[in-house]
Amino acid sequence: MTRIRLIPALLAASVVAACSKDAVQSLTGPTAGSNIKFYNFGVNAPSVNFFANDTKVTAVSSTSCTPPPAVPNPACGTTGVESTTGTAYGAAGNGGLYSSIAPGQYSFSGRISTTTDNGLSIAKLSSTLADGKYYSLYLSGFYNTTTKTVDAFVVEDPFPADIDFTKTNVRFVNAISNSTPLTVYAKNTATGDSVVIGSSIAYKAASPFVAIPAAVYDLTARASGSNTAVSVATAVSLSVARVYTVSARGDITVVSTTAANRPILTTTANR
């Protein structure tokens, strides 16, 4: 079993609340400390574990000690055996849940989790987290295989103060480094009505959360002022009383509909 030691002053808990059966956190009121989630959206980036200063805040449990290996490994009973899985490209750390840490200034990093270059930091970012606020950290841009670096940024997740629990709330984050500002439209598949959930959002920026009817939507991202879709996500269910982030990742120049590095819209539940 992997053991991850967390500094008490740094980490209040690995996540701020228990998740529901569909792995969405239930945040019914203010929580102590700061809260942050992590995304690996760096094109071609290796899998990583995320760190706040030198404390690991995301990881994947190893199964190499269960059942006990044929050849005993002393680490199974002491420090544990570190998984090399980490957070892969296109995924969110800790299953998309927030980690709760003490407010303050941090040096965040994404460090390679695979056997090759294990522990090497490919991105570093300093940011100050305020008490009671929520944030999202993105690895973004393109992974440079020579320098072994990738871009990164942090956005605040400012949930609406007065949530309309008869609707769903959604916003857009642009994590495509070679894009022009993007606008995302949501078309209700039942009524045909379309709404804008993020208008002319530049790279590393986020739109405000907007309340829209809970429904199944087809999402389309377009360059501002263009009628040409650069990415489409169909049949996205946005449930009532939930809060979501739609993020754009990938390479804006790729036109393939199957390439892993194509422009992709990913919807993640914030709560």
Q: Tell me what portion of residues adopts beta-strand conformation.
A: 35-45%
CA radius of gyration: 19 Å
Specify the structural class: mainly beta
Distance, first to last CA: 29 Å
Q: Number of helical segments?
A: 0
Q: Would you tell me the overall average pLDDT?
A: 87
Give keywords:
Immunoglobulin-like; 18 strands; single chain; mainly beta; four-stranded antiparallel sheet
Describe the protein in words:
This protein has 271 residues and is mostly beta strands. The protein folds into two domains: 1-157, no CATH class; 160-271, Carboxypeptidase-like, regulatory domain (Immunoglobulin-like, Sandwich). It is 0% helix and 43% strand. The chain has no helices and 18 strands. The protein has strands at residues 11-13, 34-40, 48-52, 55-56, 91-92, 99-101, 104-112, 121-129, 134-144, 149-156, 168-174, 182-188, 194-201, 210-212, 215-223, 229-238, 243-249, 264-269. The strands form four sheets. Strands 1, 2, 5, 6, 9 and 10 form a six-stranded mixed β-sheet that branches. A hairpin with an 8-residue loop joins strand 7 (104-112) and strand 8. It starts with 10 loop residues before the first strand and ends with a strand.
